[in-house]
Specification:
Helices cover about 70% and strands about 0% of the residues. By secondary structure, the protein is mainly alpha-helical. A two-stranded antiparallel ribbon has the order 1-2. The N terminus is likely disordered.
Length: about 500
Amino acid sequence: MEIGNMDAKQSLSSDLPEDGNISANLSSANSESCKEKVILKKKVTLLRGIAFITGTIIGSGIFITPKGVLINSGNMGMSLVVWAVCGIFSFFGALCYAELGTCIKKSGGHYIYILEIYGPLLAFLRVWVELVVIRPAVMAVSSLAFARYILQPFFMPCTAPEPAIKITAVLAMMIVFYVNSTSITWTARIQILFTVVKLATIVIIIISGLFHLSKDSSNFADAFAGDINFGKLPLAVFSGMYAYAGWFYLNFVIEEVENPEKTMPIAICVSMAIATFSYLLTNVAYFAVMTTDEVLASDAVAVTFAEQMLGNFYLAIPIFVAMSCFGAVNGGTFAVARVFYVASREGHLPQILSMIHIKKHTPLPAVVVLFPLMVIMVFSGDISSLLNFLSFVRWLFIGLIVAGLIYLRFKYPAMHRPFKVPLFIPIAFCISCFSLIGMSLYSDPVNTGIGFAICLTGIPVYYVFLKWHNKPKWFQTSVDYMTTSLQTLLKVAPSDEHAD
């Protein structure tokens, strides 16, 4: 099915040899010696799918962003409303993505849906922003949160020094990249383990908080006291949505999911139910024990909560929170590597990123490409402000994708749809999404404008590297040499599954 302009494949790969394989002999020899096709295997079961979605959603957000939601919502009661609304909003979006994932069975998530519906330019802009800004920044934030929490027990009552935090964050990312590069099975096992740990941590917080609430509910006496600044509510929603981010990650790896027509809808529904109830009850537990001022004053809400409720056991909470952050980074790395793999396969990124390790059967180049950018982000300045810039862009593209689902319903009514959501869900999601974007333009025009400008920087890159076909011979020779050298060094080859 080709809906949009599919000339994207006339890009970087169009200037390569006609067979699209620089080292065909190497690939063939390696394939024969391994006696296996060089492909990404279907190893994502229902349990692993639930673990990837839940484990990626529940990362550092619930332990960090309650403060961001509370500041911009005005009071405790409205902040709980925002958390509930964000859960419903995310669930609607996840259902829409479940339909898209079961009728467009290609990995790549956001990127592939924009490519199929709107064509190559918008698709490239989406993957460009994901590669150079969004993903390195998100991974840097989560890895820094991991490092801060894992080191905290060793430096109490003081805070860990910043150099130690940054070095630990980089070391953690090295472990994540190594595991994701060497074994899909072990990546999935680690994800399941850390998902269990983070859910256990949340259960501990919820039970202890609700136990305290049964004895003393005074903190909720004036839950809606205080002025609500409706102009800042979109910022509160963006903070909440950041905590829910991850519901779309299974769409990134759909080609590796076993029986996706059944697995995807079930995994998404179960994961979203777990995440929404966990977030709501965790916030209730926080507010049952801590006042609004205490929540706002805390740099680590979960740790402050544990200090008041769990006695000496509170020292274990930072470790559990760190493991939660590690699991989120692991799941995010696994998913987003497939976006770059597919974008390369479609001709939007260098050919080396669509190659697979000949023995490990992992998209090694697509995994490690983020590491240098992530290190730069870790040692740079305020990453959170960068994420604020890009929140607008992320939700703009998601809104466009769900609007595209509505378009497909009318343009291609006979398309096979194993999972089909009621039409009011994508319509409601689109209205809410674009309203939120419009309100963010009003409440924070500067950051929104910066995010839009960052996105537009991809346009000259697109026309220079993808649309300009008559490049100098020395340039293409250099690209070919680099690709061949990297292919030999990394022991990777083009996927046999998509070889023409």
